[in-house]
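Course exercise 7: structure representation. Students receive a sequence record and must write out the corresponding structure in token form. The form below is the worked example handed out in class, using Cytochrome c oxidase subunit 2 (227 residues). Read each field label carefully; the graders check that inputs and outputs are placed in the correct fields and that the protein name is recorded exactly as given.

STUDENT ID: A-19
EXERCISE PROTEIN: Cytochrome c oxidase subunit 2
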Amino acid sequence: MPYPMQLGFQDATSPIMEELMYFHDHTLMIVFLISSLVLYIIILMLTTKLTHTSTMDAQEVETVWTILPAVILILIALPSLRILYMMDEIYNPYLTVKAMGHQWYWSYEYTDYENLMFDSYMIPTKDLSPGQLRLLEVDNRIVLPMELPIRMLVSSEDVLHAWTMPSLGLKADAIPGRLNQITLTSSRPGVFYGQCSEICGSNHSFMPIVLEMASLKYFEKWSSMMQ
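STUDENT ANSWER:
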């Protein structure tokens, strides 16, 4: 979960988020090298008198500054496309969960079960118990088994919303009349927090998401109690 004055990402909880963090570091290193080169050239031009005002043509230089940016873009695009296709792959999901956005709460339906569906509202600040988080706790958490592929279907009943779980590297737009699909896999148990990430009205800040990843045995016990 996030903490005050945090600058970096939340701790990765899924293979996808780990890949996204590696890609972020990879891209940031390329940006750092380019910025250093540009800064060096600017300083060199300001501190020396090495100018070539009479140069009208330089094919070699033009070739370099055409090919080099193309190579850099390829080095960024290839790992990006790899992660993009990884995020879209779903092979034999253990479970399918449908998340519907409303103004201003989420409803969930476990489509593999007949009567497993519920609404998830934020707990008002005045009703919080000691240790609970303001603007992040809900009355009904999503509970899912860890280390198993889960398919999330995301849509909306009214306006645009976005189902977001930063520690798992997930964000899906909830669009009325359309189903978006994402893959969810957690590598460890825990309770993870997210929020709607699309401006959806006056109470946009008050529709958090709480996801509890647990063992398969615990999930089966919970699902039987909820039905």
